[in-house]
Amino acid sequence: MALVALVDNFSLTKIDISYEAKGFNHAYLLEKKEEIVDIAKAFKDEGYFLETITAFDKGDGLRMIYLFNVHHKVHRTAVYFDSPYDAELQSITNVFPSANWFESEVYDMFGVTFKGHPDLKRLLTPEGMKGFPLLKSWKPEEE
Amino acid sequence: MDTVKEIKKDFFINMGPQHPSTHGVLRIVLNVEGEKVLSSETVLGYAHRGVEKMAESKTYIQMMPVMDRFDYVSSMLFEWGYVGALEKALGVKVPERAEYIRVIMGELNRIASHLLWVGAFLLDLGAFTPFLWVFDARERIMDMFEEVTGQRMTNNYFRIGGVKDDLTPQFFKMLQDFLKMIRERMKDTEDLIESIIFLERVKDIGFISKQDVIDYGLTGPVARGSGFSYDLRKNEPYSVYDKIDFEIPVGEKGDCYDRYKVRMKEVIQSVRIVEQALNLLPDGPYTEKSPKVVKLPEGEYYNAVETSRGLLGVYIVSDGSTKPARFKLRDPAFSNLSILDKLLPGNKISDVVAILGSIDVVIPEIDR
Amino acid sequence: MVKIPEKVEVPYVYGIKFAVLEDVLNWCRKNSLWPATFGLACCAIEMMAAGAARFDLDRFGAGVFRPSPRQADLMIVAGTVTKKMASRVKTLYEQMPAPKYVLALGACAISGGVFSKDAYGVVKGVDSFLPVDVYVPGCPPRPEALINGLLRLQEKIQKGR
């Protein structure tokens, strides 16, 4: 599936960004978040690799960012979608093995779980950590 | 014989977090049968400091010195990624002299990082003398950094719109001396290292195929060792790298030896870049007047640079205030290390050190 | 004329010195400090530099970096001690045979350094759970500073703590 057909086949809206300001070459907003697995497959078929998966807290929910990149041209593409807190998302570890740690990290920091992830665990934070530190509502424990 | 077969069982070896060749505080749980590794699990987080949370309560300028403390062996390249993101956001134009100074310092930092890696890698494999040789060359780079930036390692030299100080006459003298000796030193070091013992230990182990590079998102010398000619300095030229002529060394098979060789060749390429940048270095201001209080316009910013370990992405979400709403590093070694659990099974315990060493990890950068 | 005595009496034999046994033991200890190879962050690189060609820690008898804490006398805490690592650092310290000494290298090990505020994963100072003998400030300290710290430690050992 060629990448040009991405917008036709999935519930994607192209976000207008200029390269200089944002740093991404293309960005799409995804409406139905379960389609991310198929989108990842489409990117992989084109030879893209997964640069990172991350998220940020908007205050009323999370925004997930999947960043794909390719070796042979300047074509860094971001796929965004909105997710509520404590959501269960589809894991893309079957498509990109590198997503294993990225998804674990997102779980560790934001508390989003991933369905189909082989070994979802708290990747970085110390043992006995309470809460998810990168949420805006999180406050460190008093020592 | 039968009794031996009966008692033969697999068991676990805990490597790290304190282990001389895990380069810091990485922990690998190895499931082994005799000498053979059956499976492994990499445990991260022993250097997790929580910097991404900390960044949300620090101003943009306060975060600059912290950038040095992720990947402390190529600290200026990390500063470059961060400062570049801020410059993109603010629309600051960097004077040409500053760009060339950045290239010179950045490449020297890359040389220092690779030299340190060679020393540590050989130390892991049990050779002590190369460590002394490369550290001698590295100390000269540290002297140059100290001359210009005032610090040996955590330099805090890059500023929004330029660099902190101009290069000094003494620096040029030291750099000329360094450039005179480094090629020969690298050749000597290679001659010293590449004995039959070393070759036996690094050749034909830890294969990374081209498909693995895509699957695991590998970048930097690890990807280049497998034959991917992917280097941001060439593929997405930033700064003044498009005006400089250099090659990207690539490996063929993708084993530990190729990754070692790629790094050794990269040192020579970096030397070439420094020589050209020195010739092209124009006169003019070394920094733009930068604002005292930095406030990024609302939005998201991403800047990618090539560090000595691969693609570094700095991702900043701004809500228009003086502090970032989200600060995230896409660090190269995090992705590069994620392939380790795939590489280790089937190898001997002694090869674990060679494979891990050839990936070149710096733990605080991975754990953040 | 000065009268030269025919025979000079030597009051003591050269090469033999009398001292308190404790002092002799301390003198031996201070000159063979074996540090544990134990790097946590940036300071570990400066520790390596201190052991390498130019600075040559071996001059002070402290260049024998031991991979195992059971063979070491000195723990150089080089870098940020995180909460996940703190219990392991303590275990390592307990594994070392007495007499043992701790040197806190760098701002992070002393107080948390740049991470002392707002970084939730960092232990603010290794002295909160280990007895530290010498503090070496710097971020990271220069190799000379580490050598100076070692000399201070040697003085301390000679005086019997």
List keywords for this structure.
B: 368 residues, alpha+beta, three-stranded antiparallel β-sheet, 16 helices, 49% helix, 13% strand, C: three-stranded parallel β-sheet, 34% helix
Write the layout of secondary structure elements.
The complex is a heterotrimer of chains A (143), B (368) and C (161).
Chain A: H1 6-9, E1 12-15, H2 19-22, E2 26-30, H3 36-45, E3 48-57, E4 62-70, E5 77-83, E6 88-90, H4 99-110, E7 113-115
Parallel strand pairs in A: 2-5, 6-7
Antiparallel strand pairs in A: 1-2, 3-4, 4-5
Chain B: H1 2-7, E1 11-15, E2 27-33, E3 36-43, H2 51-54, H3 63-67, H4 75-90, H5 96-124, H6 129-149, E4 158-159, E5 162-163, H7 169-193, H8 196-202, H9 210-215, H10 221-225, H11 232-235, H12 256-280, E6 299-307, E7 310-318, E8 324-330, H13 332-337, H14 340-343, H15 349-359, H16 363-367
Antiparallel strand pairs in B: 1-2, 2-3, 4-5, 6-7, 7-8
Helix pairs in contact in B: 4-5, 5-6, 5-12, 5-15, 6-7, 7-12, 12-15
Chain C: H1 21-30, H2 42-51, E1 74-78, H3 83-95, E2 101-105, H4 107-111, E3 134-136, H5 143-158
Parallel strand pairs in C: 1-2, 2-3
Protein described:
The complex is a heterotrimer of chains A (143), B (368) and C (161). Chain A contains 4 helices and 7 strands; from the N terminus they run αβαβαββββαβ. Chain A is 21% helix and 29% strand. In chain A, the strands form 2 sheets. In chain A, strands 1-2-5-4-3 form a 5-stranded mixed beta sheet. Chain B has 368 residues and is an alpha+beta fold. In chain B, 49% of the residues lie in helices and 13% in strands. Chain B has 16 helices and 8 strands. Chain B has helices spanning 2-7, 51-54, 63-67, 75-90, 96-124, 129-149, 169-193, 196-202, 210-215, 221-225, 232-235, 256-280, 332-337, 340-343, 349-359, 363-367, and strands at 11-15, 27-33, 36-43, 158-159, 162-163, 299-307, 310-318, 324-330. In chain B, strands 1-2-3 form a 3-stranded antiparallel beta sheet. With 161 residues, chain C is mostly helical. Chain C has a 3-stranded parallel beta sheet. In chain C, strand 2, helix 4 (107-111) and strand 3 (134-136) form a beta-alpha-beta unit. Chain C is elongated and about 85 Å long. Classes of the chains: A alpha/beta (143), B alpha+beta (368), C mainly alpha (161). Chains in contact: A-B, A-C, B-C. The A-B interface holds A 20-24, 44, 47-52, 54, 56-57, 65, 67, 69, 71-74, 76, 96-98, 100-101, 109, 122-126, 133-134, 138 and B 44-45, 48, 50, 52-53, 85, 88-89, 91, 213-218, 223, 228, 230, 235-236, 299-304, 311, 313, 315, 317, 325-326, 328, 330, 334-335, 338, 342, 367-368.
